[in-house]
Amino acid sequence: MMASPRVVRNLARRFHGGTIVVDDRSAAAVGASDRRIDGAGRLRGATDHAGRHWSVGEGDPVVHVVVHDKRAWSSLLSKGSVGLGASYADGWWDADDLTDLVRLLLINTSGVRAALDVLGQVAEPFVDRFGRLGRPTPADDRRNVQAHFDLPSELFEVMLDDETMAYSCAVFERPGMSLAEAQRAKFDRICAKLRLSPGDHLVEIGTGWGGLAIHAAERYGCRVTTTTTSDSQREIAAKRVADAGLADRVTVLGRDYRDLEGRFDKLVSVEMIEAVDWRLHDTFFRSCTRLLRPNGLMALQAITISDRSYARAKLHDDFIRRMIFPGGCIPSVEAIARSVRRATDLTIIDVEDIGRHYAETLRRWDVALRSARARLEAAGLDRRFQRTWDLYLCYCEAAFLERHISDVQIVFAKPAWRPTPPFELRLA
Known about the structure:
The protein is an alpha/beta fold. It folds into 2 domains: 5-108; 138-413, Rossmann fold (3-Layer(aba) Sandwich). 43% of the residues lie in helices and 18% in strands. It has 16 helices and 13 strands. It has helices at residues 5-11, 71-89, 98-108, 110-131, 138-149, 153-159, 179-193, 211-220, 231-243, 281-291, 310-313, 319-323, 333-343, 358-370, 373-378, 383-401, and strands at 19-24, 36-37, 43-44, 53-57, 62-67, 93-95, 201-205, 223-227, 250-253, 264-270, 292-305, 347-353, 405-413. The strands form 3 sheets. The chain has a 7-stranded mixed beta sheet, with helices on both faces. Strands 4-1-5-6 form a 4-stranded mixed beta sheet. It has a two-stranded antiparallel sheet with strand order 2-3. Helix 3 packs across helix 16 (383-401). It is globular and about 70 Å long. The N and C termini lie far apart (54 Å). Residues 29-46 have low confidence and may be disordered.
């Protein structure tokens, strides 16, 4: 049975934190209106007789939503964020500010998520016991990575800055920084935390398009071995390394992290662990510690969810996992620490939360994509794909603004590592 807007309005009786104004063009007709209009000409808290115009909540921000297809209601109610994403991609509804809309939805569903978090924590021991039986294979991981990163290269060339091609949280240390400057600031932060020097051999798990490997070799003089299971990334990264004249210092591989060999002074992985299934966290960290010398250091940058939400979220099939990152899993800091304790001899020596910078990073990516519609169409990325990615970037921006998720840089040390004073890292 098709869900009606009335059901949504009833569920949203206690909506707060802002206003959503709905123009339901899927309604059959427009009747005489008894809706209230405020001094700024905005609809407030009522509905017309035909049910086409209505609103929930009050106060700012005010988000205007236009519903084009009545199937949007049942899609949202029956499938949650997956339904929200699929119905938007199909053009069933539009909003004048996707980021503010998602922020309001996050605010007003926090109570439900909190209750589900408690249930997830209670069920976790039982779920883990049986869930571990179905862990993905390296072939599964490769397919999932390629499903996202082997999309037409024009997508990432348009979205990312052309200097670093970094697809991870930048660090805006001062006002007015360009995205490329902020990405290099992030690179320098990582390299400084690793105490990189010309005598080091750095291994990177998750090449991206080679930005960090090039930066580390060029600025810090070290050797770098970097790996990715994305064919497109490996090809582009190798070309960028060659163009930078660094082929003698940077080696780009196409191996799974489990197949890497050798011992390295330092290890880095930037926002790659989100592609590692929760059942493979121990395998990932065990591989990392195996690759490091007895006095080695490891830096991990990871998108994280709160410790309270992890048990629920790791099993939840949401919009991002279904339509953007198949097989993805956002860890929590506690989950990372537990896995490191179980599987390695590493010790956490530094943790920094940089999540406050991710919303601005995402906003700039979104602006870049929206300004290149024609080029994306020419690359075979149709309007449905572009709408999916519009929502993806705004959805994530909202999640970081509301602290639903965050981003951390964690440094781990092997048992024989000792600090060499004096050492000072200037933080923003």
